[in-house]
Amino acid sequence: MNYGYRAFLVAYEKGDGAIVMSNSDNGETLIQAIVRTIAFDYGWPDYAPTTRILNATDPKAFDRNIGAYRLPSGGIVTFWRDGIHIEVHQSGQPVLEIFPTSELEYFYKTVDARWVFSSDLLHATLFQNDQEQTAKRLDDPDGKLAVEFSIAEQRRFKDQKAAAESAAALRRLITGLASGTPNYDEMAPAYAAINRQQLPMLKASLEKLGPIQSIDFIRVGAAAQDVYIVKFEHGDREFSILLESDGRVHAAQFSP
Fold first, then answer.
1. pLDDT tens sequence across 130-141
2. Residue 187 gets which letter from DSSP?
3. In the CATH scheme, what is the code of domain 59-159?
4. How far is 129 from 134, CA to CA, in rounded Å?
5. In the chain, at which end, N or C, are there fewer CB atoms within 10 A of the end residue's CB?
6. pTM of the model
7. Enclosing H/E stretch for 149
8. What does the pLDDT look like over 74-112, one tens digit per residue?
9. Do strands 235-243 and 249-254 pair parallel, antiparallel, or not at all (unpaired)?
């Protein structure tokens, strides 16, 4: 479970400013888009959208870059082409489209970021927030499987269909945290680290709700997370859970 949120404040001496808050650890993309829109409308000297030139590149030229890439953080980024659309997906984030400035450079319209692919097809570098991260391409079949999983996750969102194992995984997660004995092997390493740190607080929050009575699917979120209403003996809570391609829990949240 994750009680995280994101917030951003900007203020100028002349009195202009903005505060944007998100009740999710995945809210950074939305915050950036809102701040850039405000900056553009009010003519601020900072945060305005970067102007990029769209190149009329043949979409098929991207095919050599299709695959999965591992970021320094360990996260996986997948790229594929859907007709004339070039799609990008990172776990925990919505699928986004990127657009070419050349056959090697592609940019987002929703965030101020761009990808540059190496001519040797071995790396892709993300430039964002004055930082760069170089992701190493995964060899097949791992890369192919990761792309297929991302495409399937996008389809699940469009069809609003829960992942086959997410309800059972959520039940095991809640039961383990409430008892103070979660199975960390069923979690991605980063998420397991969060739960180890927050276990006393999570156990106290879930233990007081009592045994689970039922778990009912509501929807699939934009990041392909499955959202459920969980009925406990002493109350109901909304939970979201996102599984990785190997079935481990990538992230989960609930309303306290």
1. 889 999 999 878
2. B
3. 2.40.128.50
4. 14
5. C
6. 0.75
7. helix 142-159
8. 889 999 999 999 999 988 888 999 999 999 999 998 888
9. antiparallel
